[in-house]
Amino acid sequence: MSLMGSFYVVQPEYWLLATHGDVLDAKRRAAEWLASHGSYDGAEKNIEEFVRQWALRQLVDAYLYPLEWLGERIVIEEPVKMGSGEKEADISIKNANRRTFLYVEAKALGTNDLEFREAERQLESYLSSTHTATIGLVTDGLRVRCIRKKVDPNDFEYIPDIPPYGAGVAAKAKLVRELPPAGSKAKTGLKSITERYERLLFDVHSTIRDVDGMHDDEALDELAKIIYTKIYDERATIEKEAGAAFRFQVYGAANPSEAASEIRLLYEEARAKEIEIYSKRIPGYERSRGVFKNQIRLSDAALFRVAEQLQEFSFVDSDADVKGRAFQQVLGPAIRAGMGQYFTPDPIVEIAVGIVQPKASDLILDPFCGSGHFLTRCLQYVVAAQGGNLDEYSLHQFKFFHLHGIEKSDRMVRIAMTDMMLHEDGHSNIRNLDALLSFENYPDMLALRDDGSNDPAIFDLILTNPPLWQHHASRSDGDDRAISVRS
Fold first, then answer.
1. Residue 289: its pLDDT value, please?
2. What's the mean per-residue pLDDT of the chain?
3. CATH code of the domain in which 453 resides
4. 136 vs 434, which has greater pLDDT?
5. Is the domain of 125 the same as that of 221?
6. Which of 337, 340, 328, 345 is nearest to 479 (CA)?
7. Are 29 and 131 in the same domain?
8. Has residue 147 been placed in a domain?
């Protein structure tokens, strides 16, 4: 049974948020009812505010949301943008960044079935329009329905109740940036992902798959979005003073729904910031690289569990090889199981890269990059072979500007970008395009030239395994080849 319980009349003199215009108007109507009827009996069937005030009381008394949230994080008549228009939700509960994570719709006591169903549809439309909110409640005092937005934003299911305020998680001190010991290169103060924790991403992938019932490749896609978000939060936080709280965490959240809403908001900010930064220097960046525009599709429960598993670890402070191995534990099996794709085996990749011996000055392209394994191996090779002889600027230039890939599948681009980020970048040069298009479709590649020419022959090295040969690689005869071309 829902904690909302049985309806009772809250006398108007005890109404919450009493200075709000809508509440003042309802009080006036209630006073008129009292004057003409001698009591408030029956007023709750005509004045919707009686049901909303009961719901507000129950949020505080039964669900244990803090009284001090009223007017700040529990608000009424919250505007909700819906297409070109705007409506107002009866009650909105907001996260610490003032974005709604839970809606409540109230109708007058005992409203008819048609109006109640319309209220349900209204609540669903609010949830569809708000990325950070997935749960809502609608009530007319006699009926209480709790709704959850499923993976598809337009698909909903009934649930037993909305989440109460979770004092256990909310009371925990937030994880904050701590200054590392003198001489340490660490920046976050969080744990590094060492060999001891190499199964971390495998365990997180299993959580996503098991909690939400996703296939392996779907879970991998969501893991890529999560890693992308976590890295963004760490990079943003290390630019702040010591003691700044990380946002990718569950500590301090009222419940899993609030924690999940914070992660979704952080993801929105990460992808918007990336588009803003890279669009200024790369022509057509949003069109060719904006693959993280897809929303996080995880339920609140799954997102909470994942954040709980990852929050104490740092991707920024962890060794690139260890992070790469941790991701590879998930990558190969998930892609084979879910997408039926077989990538060039590691020994073949190593042989190809070893033959061409890439240098930090080379411009490198994989036009059928898949998960980006040729590119990450080139990065590892250059760092190992020349890293000690390169100044910080030259190494940065190679990582961020010399490794390029093209891949037709947006899901594979997300995965390739994630792998590149874990190997300490180059992800901004992975394009979600068809490598068979003519070169005028790649203005950013032509812009790499510094001589003003439109000649597309700009790459020093091409390493790839074309799709036709990838198909052969999956055959039982083991036929597999890779191309390595140096101009």
1. 72
2. 87
3. 3.40.50.150
4. 136
5. no
6. 345
7. yes
8. yes
**Domain span at 125:** 12-165
Contact 158/146 with Cβ under 8 angstroms? yes
CB contact at 8 A, 154 and 164? no
Within a domain: residue 2?
no
Fill in the amino acid letter for 185: K
Q: Which helix (H) or strand (E) holds 75?
A: strand 74-82
Distance CA(344)–CA(32), nearest Å, equals 78
CA distance 133 to 432: 29
**What are the two backbone dihedrals, phi and then psi, of residue 479, each rounded to the nearest 5 degrees?**
-65, 115
Residues 68-72: what's their mean pLDDT?
Answer: 96
CA neighbor of 353 nearest in space, from 330, 335, 380: 380
Residues 6+ apart with CB under 8 A from 377: 349, 350, 353
* Residue at token pair 């991701």: 327
**Looking at the domain assignment, is residue 3 inside a domain?**
no
State the DSSP code for 479. -
Q: What is the mean pLDDT of residues 202-208?
A: 95
Express the helix, strand and coil content of the chain in percent, nearest 5 each.
45, 15, 40
Q: Is 9 helix (H, G, I), strand (E, B) or coil?
A: coil
Confirm whether 5 is domain-assigned. no
DSSP letter (8 states) at residue 171: T
The two structure tokens encoding residue 357? 């011996």
Token pair for residue 189?
A: 């103060």
Residues 155 and 222 in one domain: no
Q: Is the pLDDT of residue 191 over 90?
A: yes
Q: Are residues 411 and 280 in the same domain?
A: no
Residues 349 and 487 in one domain: yes
Would you tell me the crossing angle of helices 300-310 and 256-278 to the nearest 10 degrees? 70
| Cβ-contact 205, 223 below 8 angstroms | yes
Other beta carbons less than 10 A from residue 184's beta carbon: 10
Of 113-122, 203-212, 295-304, 418-427, which range is least confident? 418-427
- Indicate the number of domains in the chain: 3
Using CA atoms, how far apart are residues 245 and 262, in angstroms rounded to an integer? 13
Q: Which residue, 165, 186, 219, sits at the end of a domain?
A: 165
